[in-house]
Amino acid sequence: MASIDLLISDCDGVIVDSEIISHRVLFEALSLHVPAEQLHAALEGTFGLTVPSIIDLIEKRFDLTMPETFDVDLRRQSEKVVAEEVQAIPGVREALLAIKLPLAVASNSRLHNVQASLQRAGLTERVAGNIFCAEMVRSPKPAPDVYLLAAERMGVAPGHCLVVEDSPTGVLAARTAGMQVIGFTGASHIPAGHDQALRELGVAAVINDMRDLPATVEALAR
């Protein structure tokens, strides 16, 4: 097995417990255009996708055209509410400080949102500016682009990278990039049976508590 030389973490749902907040704002906005019951079904499994990708999915599924400013207004509202309410995942700061590998963050969120999340979690210095976002690449997750960019910029081959992800979207991106993945299922938005869904996508391990991350990384790095 290849040595592990770089740890790459997703942000939303791994470092901060933001997915459930963003999803609530998204649902409230879309429910003005789609009946709630149908919307619940349509949004199942969309955690980890970018907002434009979700809007495109809803428009196609329900043959809708959202107002011209819908995307911008939704992003602004989501960023405002997340900034007011978001909390760090319990134990994430201690876990990432305990792991001595170089650390990068790869996210479908915008750069300034990731920076704010890292500040909230007390991890700005630990990440040291090694942030890679969907706006920096051609295609967001589930495409592998953002993970490949992180590996390239950090000077580490993809096969020597270990990723921490919470969503099938992110796991698929990292696995397509040729990286090992630890699935994290401890965020508030995670549904029952999610660990099995991640295992079916080929994660090397699944944890539900960030206190287990250092030992899991150490075991996979042997």
UniProtKB/TrEMBL annotation:
<dbReference type="InterPro" id="IPR036412">
    <property type="entry name" value="HAD-like_sf"/>
</dbReference>
<dbReference type="GO" id="GO:0016787">
    <property type="term" value="F:hydrolase activity"/>
</dbReference>
<keyword id="KW-0479">Metal-binding</keyword>
<dbReference type="InterPro" id="IPR023198">
    <property type="entry name" value="PGP-like_dom2"/>
</dbReference>
<keyword id="KW-0460">Magnesium</keyword>
<dbReference type="GO" id="GO:0046872">
    <property type="term" value="F:metal ion binding"/>
</dbReference>
<dbReference type="InterPro" id="IPR051600">
    <property type="entry name" value="Beta-PGM-like"/>
</dbReference>
<keyword id="KW-0378">Hydrolase</keyword>
<dbReference type="InterPro" id="IPR023214">
    <property type="entry name" value="HAD_sf"/>
</dbReference>
<comment type="similarity">
    <text>Belongs to the HAD-like hydrolase superfamily. CbbY/CbbZ/Gph/YieH family.</text>
</comment>
<protein>
    <submittedName>
        <fullName>HAD family hydrolase</fullName>
    </submittedName>
</protein>
<dbReference type="Pfam" id="PF00702">
    <property type="entry name" value="Hydrolase"/>
</dbReference>
<dbReference type="InterPro" id="IPR006439">
    <property type="entry name" value="HAD-SF_hydro_IA"/>
</dbReference>
